[in-house]
Amino acid sequence: MLHSHLTTLNAVSLVLEAFSPQGIGPEVLLAGSGIAAADLHQPDTRITTRQEMRVCANAVALRQDIGLELGQRMHVSAYGMLGYALLTSATFGDALRLALRYPALLGTLFELSLEEDGQRVWFTARDYREEPSLAAFNIELCLTSLKVICDDLLGRPLPLSGARFDYPAPAYQARYGERFACPVHFEADRNAFAFDRQWLDQPLPLADAVTHRAMAERCRKQNTEFTGRQAWLGRVRQRLATQLHAAPGLDRLAEQLNCSSRTLRRHLHDLGSSYQELLDELRFEQAKQWLAEDAMPIHCIAERLGFSETASFRHAFVRWSGVAPSQFRP
């Protein structure tokens, strides 16, 4: 479900850097995300996928091809301890398999896999479940950044034999050739790039067994923390989702979760969220689903989401989506 994942501020910082030379300030790109400029200076800050996607949506509204540029900026050093663990792996294949073991530390929105096809290996990204309007952006960002990571690990460009994308070619398709330096096909059966499988056995220039063991163990512990916090946030969301018709409020929700309201508020703040933001997200998701089905009258949707007046629901939906509920319907 959208927004249930945690991630770092890496992508957000890169978005701001990409637009800074054009004179576009943080206030424009951070608008609506709940991220303050001061948060960018806190290295341990964790944000939700919702917050990251809001910033990315602001960026795409300014430049449709920004995903390719952002991916090009995401070097292996941007991934902290995981980046060091990858760089010090014995072989290229070892590094890629380690990265696949910790998707939470990669901050990916996809299920990543290495799929052998004869003498080729396809590095594939699938199972995207986030905002549909940002699918192409996120695929561009994901595959371009993975290619950059591969190049960084090897200390030279990884030669590709092909790249595939499951959507129509955009107007800026020539830029794909610049990024991947191989034949590119659109409206394909997958989102992936391919390379010769012999590269998996290639020793890495910065391999160091002692450092690698230490970094791999720290990655394991960090992944446990990440996934634990994600599971907790998912539990909170699940509990609240069953009560949208009569939202319990922060204090009552805390009682249901067997914690104090202060503890719940602090945990949500640490996750870059709040009770009201979670409630709005869940109402918005449910409203979109019911509106898409085009069967339930809008006043009934408002009532089932806990709004005392239809007008209040309309105003809230415009705030969430930018359009009225009636305009959202197919």
UniProtKB/TrEMBL annotation:
InterPro entries named in the record: AraC-type_N, Homeodomain-like_sf, HTH_AraC
Source species, domain of life: Bacteria
UniProt xrefs under SUPFAM superfamilies: Homeodomain-like
Domain HTH araC/xylS-type: start-end pairs: 234-330
Keyword field contains DNA-binding: yes
SMART domains with a match to the protein in the record: HTH_ARAC
GO molecular function, one term: DNA-binding transcription factor activity
Keywords in alphabetical order: DNA-binding, Transcription, Transcription regulation
One cellular component term from this protein's GO annotations in UniProt: cytosol
Gene3D superfamilies assigned: Homeodomain-like (1.10.10.60)
Keyword Acyltransferase: no
Protein name: AraC family transcriptional regulator
Organism whose genome encodes this protein: Pseudomonas extremaustralis
